[in-house]
Amino acid sequence: MEARGTAALHTKLDEVFTMNCDMDGDMENQMENQMENQVEMEEKTRLINQVLELQHTLEDLSARVDAVKEENLKLKSENQVLGQYIENLMSASSVFQTTDTKSKRK
After folding, report:
1. What is the pLDDT of residues 29-80, one digit of tens each?
2. Around 12, how many Cα atoms within 13 Å sit in the side-chain half-sphere?
3. Phi, psi of 99 (to 5 degrees)
4. What confidence score (pLDDT) does residue 30 get?
5. Are 96 and 90 in contact (CB under 8 A)?
6. Which residues contact 97 (CB under 8 A, 6 or more apart)?
7. Coiled-coil ranges per the record (predicted)?
8. What digits encode the pLDDT tens for the residues 78-100?
């Protein structure tokens, strides 16, 4: 009867050991999953921050393009005014008047 009791005890110990190993394996899997989830969340957070930074950069560049366009229009207008002013000065000055060389030679 003692052999049967010992065999039953060994069987019970094997079951407990197997359950303990299964629980250890489950805990390891849970820990691995938590670590993977944490890595994924950190990566998502990093990517979100990068996207936000790029959006701000794009907004800044867009504002700069608008400012440059406005400045360009202003400079074009000023160039037209200066060009007209120079034409008026040239037409009013005798230095830039066309002369009839044939009439002077005669």
Report:
1. 888 888 899 999 999 999 999 999 999 999 999 999 999 999 999 999 999 9
2. 6
3. -115, 150
4. 83
5. yes
6. none
7. 44-78
8. 999 999 999 999 888 887 776 65
Give every CB contact of residue 96 below 8 A, 6+ residues apart in sequence: 90
How far is the C-alpha of 101 from the C-alpha of 30, rounded, in Å? 103
Global confidence as pTM: 0.50
In angstroms, rounded to a whole number, what is the distance separating the alpha carbons of residues 29 and 32? Answer: 5
**Which residue's entry shows tokens 């066309």?**
98
Tally the residues of the chain: 106
- What is the distance of C-alpha 47 from the center of its chain? 9
Rounded Cα–Cα distance for residues 72 and 78 (Å): 10
**Distance between CA atoms of residues 25 and 17, nearest Å:** 12
Q: How far does Cα 18 stand from its chain's mean position?
A: 52
CA 68 to chain centre: 22
User: Cα dihedral sign for 63, 66, 72, 73?
Assistant: negative
